[in-house]
Amino acid sequence: MAPDRGITDAVPAEPPGLIAAPAPAQAARTGVLSILLLGPAVAWTFLFFLVPLAVMVWQSFQRDGLSLFHYRRLFSTPLYVSAMATTFQISLSVTAGCLLLGYPVAYLIATAGPRVRSLVLLLVVIPYWLDYIVRSYSWMVLLGRMGLVNRMLMALGVTSEPISILYSIWSVDVGMIQILLPLMVLTLYGAMHGIDQRLVQAAAIHGAGPWQAFRRVFFPLSLPGVYGACLLTFVVSMGFYITPALLGGRKETMISQLIYTLASDMLDWPLASAVSALLLVVSLLIVLVYNRLFSIDRLWGGATS
Amino acid sequence: MEPSVAHGSRSGAALRLEHITKRFGPVAAVQEVCLTIPAGSFVTLLGPSGSGKTTTLNLIAGFLLPDAGEIFIDRHAVSRVPPHKRNIGMVFQNYALFPHMTVFENVAFPLRMRTALTGAAQRRRVEETLDLVQLTGLGERYPRQLSGGQQQRVAMARALVSDPRLLLMDEPLGALDKKLRERLQLEIKAIHRRVGTTIVYVTHDQSEALTLSDIVVVMDRGRIRQVGSPRDLYEAPENEFVADFLGGANLIAGHVRGQVGEDIVVALVSGGTILVRADGRPIALRSPVQIMVRPEDIDVLKGHCDDPEHVAFQGEVAEAVYLGDSTKLVVAVSGGTLTAKLPGRRGTEFRHGDAVTACWTRSATRILSASVTEAIG
User: Fold this and answer.
1) What is the rounded average pLDDT for all residues in chain B?
2) Which of A262, B42, B148, B199 has its CA 20 to 30 A from that of A232?
3) Does the pTM exceed 0.90?
4) Quick check: B144 contacting A, CB < 8 Å?
């Protein structure tokens, strides 16, 4: 360290004179501007998100001083671990469902002409105007024993008795997919929009039919968008609470429901905090592992130059 | 049409456009275009932006369907044949290389789509083509790891690898600097000589068109203004647009007054008459015309010009611009200015305000019939 400093001291960092003079002032001005622009959002996030989060984590380690008591309780109760597994499973099936339904729609929006594009985009966004609690209740009406779906099935003679769709994994999936589909479609569309259509033309003129052009050019180039959209949908659905509570049965209890019950019915805040911390850690781990597996660089072809 | 890739057969396809029209809304991007391109030739579509040259290329490629007219490749009507069945190669403006594939995979793409070549035979064909464009050994790189010039070569290789009989090039050198552009022009010309495929090349750069082409098609506002060899177009433009777009021209307005022997007498709008050698084309008496003289055909003298075979104007030097290998002189004469380009150091003696004579031989002058709108005005 010492010799380095000797050398840097000998050479002035900034050439003296008129040219160098305005630079620090300008840097200071952009610095001030950045603080002004970022400040309010950062302060808000700090006060109302990071501080409560820290308090929550702190609480989960408290029992007459620092202790792992609540975590021991958590891991020795099968309910919490199995709810975590259920949460994982539901999130996975919801993400898969959203991808299967959303990819074709996003593809249509990305490749259609301007008129069709704005129409379909509008149709995708309209459900957002309706609160998701309302949407979940509507599904209860539709999927109930005497709901529209059952009555239709019976009228068609598919079944003589009403079948139970509500309060099952199916109704939870249907409801959550319907709520999360716009998120999937819009994220996918954002990524597909960036794919140069001339690459598809280049594939076509060099002999690829529509299917081959899609399979070999458009689809591989859309994969980073697929991974991103899936991650987003998955993480959001991990925290779902109202929809599984309304549409699911006892077996479809997701982790957020347990946290709610612990915090507001049983007033066991330390354990609620511990379960929340577990959900947070698991979500973060998933993001990390996922990023490692599907790094964007690798997909776009070795940035190792 | 059922095109087959005939390997090793290195000949071009003949191309014919018959009364092609393409509209975008109310605007006709291409209007009534008729064009016959002989097999194996290098044809350039030249014009300013919005002239319809790229639309014409996209119609030939099949990315657009014509509203009227028909396109024939080797006597087969193709305007309803989708692009992937037309057996065409294409170099795009910004290359449109597949970013998720290596250079090798990019070049092998047309072979995988169009031919049964696999394994060693495919590898050999790709490597031959990479050799042709001087990219030997770069097959494992990704496009983003290459320079602009190298990417351009990959695009060439991909377009050529399956021996298409027709190659389309859409301003392929537009993104490169001047030096590299000039080198690649010569390479493209050499490759054309070797593979013999028909090339349709779009550019707005007139010197590029003159360098590369057997035939230049000058387009303006969706119509073809003239078709001919570079020399024809430069030396015998048929209209003002072509004269001006290729190489710059002095245009002097007047009308035909009569004929004296081999010369046509033209009365100038600015007063006076000049004699122009007739070139055999019929010209109606009293019809409005433009006289065209190329800057390099004008000589500028300090004294008088007494040669009766010359046309001479008195004037004074308004501008003298030294260009290194030549000097550009703008001479103010009665009724306008004339631009002359003197080679070597001959022009360096002139200064702003010098009284001079601008003159040229009668045979260096050409009569263009003025366009309809100007004739009315």
Assistant:
1) 89
2) A262
3) no
4) yes
